[in-house]
Design a protein that fits this description.
- The protein is α+β, with helices and mostly antiparallel strands.
- It contains 23 helices and 15 strands.
- This is EF-hand-containing protein.
- It comes from Dioscorea alata (Purple yam).
């Protein structure tokens, strides 16, 4: 039986090299006999391969001879179909082994599954993570964005989305020169230096080819960041290994993968171990080639889970557990299956740390909490900071590029600017940032915003602040110093004494645009009026916000909502601005910012 199936498999492959298309031979299960899963899988593989051969033959007939694929043969009088089967099969077997990778040992698969999902994961959560591909939206207005259909994997999708935007917005010319066959010239291989640059918002004109390259470059960058810049692991499934064939176009690959996943599910570590295959790459060029070839795999419904597994294995399971403060908890949180902050941080900075402050927080007794270790390409803002549940550090608030993953209580979205100058600071803003970093370095309250007297003395010495003795005594009288009181004192202290008082009013205001992208498909009702009875379209949301950041002022002036001009007159208050939870997130980055937009409120859930 096995010999017969192998013969049929070889015949299907030979057909793709013949000049005339014979009728494809497909085997069928014997009537009256129950087909085993293994036999069904082999039959499905043969049918898909025969279909691929037929399509390739038809395409070959329509091509000129100069564009037709040629097969080198030692004997010029011998046709391609006469190449010894043993040679072609050996080469094909070797290529298949490289493509499919190696299986994980059972104990490693058990550790991986338990680390991600825990011991009591529900079928609903597994279904969420098994039905989310990494695909771009088909809607012209949001075609630069990845669309989410299932709840849960949004943390993975939003982070990848942020990196994709970095390449699409700020490196459009270089991106066009990226070659799948020569990725050594890609941006990943070169050091990226931030420059003053304003991108375009003409997203509909970005070609599919550029989007695919941006996606693969983003995946390579993230995975090598997880691997300390030295290596990356690419994960796939064994059910794909014989379905993805070189020379097949994207649509045919997608069709093959969809068929291969019919009835497929992962419900346990054993299920994962049977089908998961991993390959390790130390060359970014090789990883780029592999991911470009297997991009339809990550576009399939298993894409989000496979990429998360790739990132975890790139970091190493032991290193991931060492990064965490409590490694006993699953990375996918119950009861809704959301990606934890550790997953988002792993993709942002290469380490699965659980906190968003800078560096480590020493708790004494040899204990500490782990935060973001260094500067990052993509930032992070969260609604939880506006509610005083946490404090995001400067590394995440001020990333290299003006792109932020935005977290709410239950969802992750993306905020970005087209102009890198939105993060530029003037003299006093730089001074403020330096003082805040020094204060946060002494804050052992977990982001509570207060420090002890000894730490306060270090802060004012480090930042060259000279309070009058009576003011200093007043600040230290309670035994601890609260940031809000310290901040108010700085606003009242002259610049020549190290304060932030600016009687000239020379700071001025900031005004710029931000864009917010929510990848989860929702009803859009504010764009074009729909006919009576017509169902509003389901698509991601892209919202443009106009942001105004007023000049520095004292708390009293802010509460009074008036600003004194240089002539001493009082300016009229600005018209009421719009508000949504996203605005609270924006104000954690730009205090006192006001925002306005057209249409529906931007949603972070």
């Amino acid at each position: 039986m096995a010999d017969r199936e192998d013969e049929e498999l070889q015949m299907a492959l030979r057909m793709s090299l013949q000049s005339s298309p014979p009728e494809a031979k497909r085997s069928k299960p014997r009537e009256g006999a129950e087909e085993s899963p293994e036999a069904r899988n082999r039959r499905l593989q043969r049918e898909l391969m025969a279909s691929a051969a037929e399509k390739r033959i038809r395409a070959t007939e329509n091509k000129s001879p100069s564009l037709s694929p040629k097969v080198e043969s030692p004997n010029k009088n011998v046709g391609p179909s006469c190449v010894p089967v043993s040679i072609t099969e050996a080469r094909r077997t070797a290529e298949r082994k490289v493509r499919s990778g190696e299986a994980l040992p059972p104990e490693v698969a058990n550790e991986l599954f338990s680390m991600v999902f825990g011991s009591g994961v529900s079928k609903g959560i597994l279904a969420q993570w098994s039905n989310q591909g990494i695909r771009f939206s088909s809607d012209p207005d949001t075609c630069m964005g990845l669309v989410q259909h299932e709840g849960g994997p949004c943390g993975v999708l939003a982070t990848i989305q942020a990196f994709v935007l970095k390449y699409l917005l700020f490196f459009p010319q270089e991106l066009g020169h990226v070659s799948p066959n020569n990725p050594s010239q890609t941006l990943v291989k070169r050091g990226l230096a931030r420059s003053s640059y304003a991108a375009t918002d003409n997203f509909a004109h970005i070609t599919d080819e550029r989007k695919s390259r941006a996606l693969v470059l983003s995946m390579v960058e993230i995975l090598f960041s997880c691997g300390n810049g030295k290596s990356a692991v690419v994960s796939t499934l064994d059910v794909f290994s014989d379905h993805i064939k070189d020379g097949c176009d994207g649509d045919l690959k997608n069709e093959m993968i969809t068929k291969a996943l019919e009835g497929f599910s992962i419900e346990s570590a054993s299920d994962l171990q049977k089908v998961l295959r991993v390959s390790t790459y130390t060359s970014q060029a090789a990883a780029f080639d592999r991911l470009m070839t297997d991009l339809p795999v990550f576009e399939s419904r298993m894409g989000a889970m496979l990429f998360l597994i790739s990132a975890l294995l790139s970091r190493g399971l032991e290193s991931v557990q060492a990064d965490r403060d409590d490694p006993s908890l699953p990375l996918v949180t119950a009861p809704f299956g959301h990606a934890s902050q550790e997953i988002v941080n792993l993709l942002l900075c290469g380490q699965a740390v659980p906190n968003v402050f800078d560096g480590r927080m020493d708790l004494g007794g040899g204990m500490s909490l782990k935060g973001i270790p260094n500067g990052v390409e993509i930032g992070f803002l969260t609604l939880l900071e506006s509610l005083n549940f946490c404090k995001v550090g400067q590394y995440l608030k001020c990333p290299k590029w003006p792109i932020w993953v935005v977290g709410s209580e239950s969802h992750y979205t993306v905020l970005f600017a087209l102009d890198t100058s939105v993060q530029d600071e003037n003299e006093l803003e730089s001074r403020e940032a330096k003082i805040r970093r020094a204060f946060d370095a002494q804050d052992q309250s977990g982001g509570g915003g207060f420090i002890g007297v000894e730490g306060f003395q270090l802060v004012i010495r480090e930042t060259n602040i000279h309070f009058p003795p009576e003011k200093l005594d007043n600040l230290c009288n309670a035994g601890f110093i609260v940031w809000s009181e310290f901040w108010q004192a700085l606003l009242e202290l002259d610049k020549n004494l190290g304060g932030l008082k600016d009687p000239t009013g020379s700071l001025g205001k900031k005004q710029f645009d931000l864009f917010h992208f929510n990848g989860i498909a929702k009803s859009v009702v504010n764009m074009n009026a729909t006919a009576e009875g017509e169902i509003p379209s389901q698509r991601p949301r892209l919202c443009k916000l106009s942001v105004l950041v007023p000049p520095k002022w004292t708390q009293e002036e802010f509460l009074a909502d008036v600003v004194p001009s240089s002539s001493g007159e009082v300016n009229q208050p600005a018209p009421p601005a719009q508000h949504a939870p996203l605005v609270d997130c924006i104000r954690t980055r730009w205090p006192r910012a006001t925002c306005s937009w057209v249409g529906d409120d931007p949603s972070i859930v």
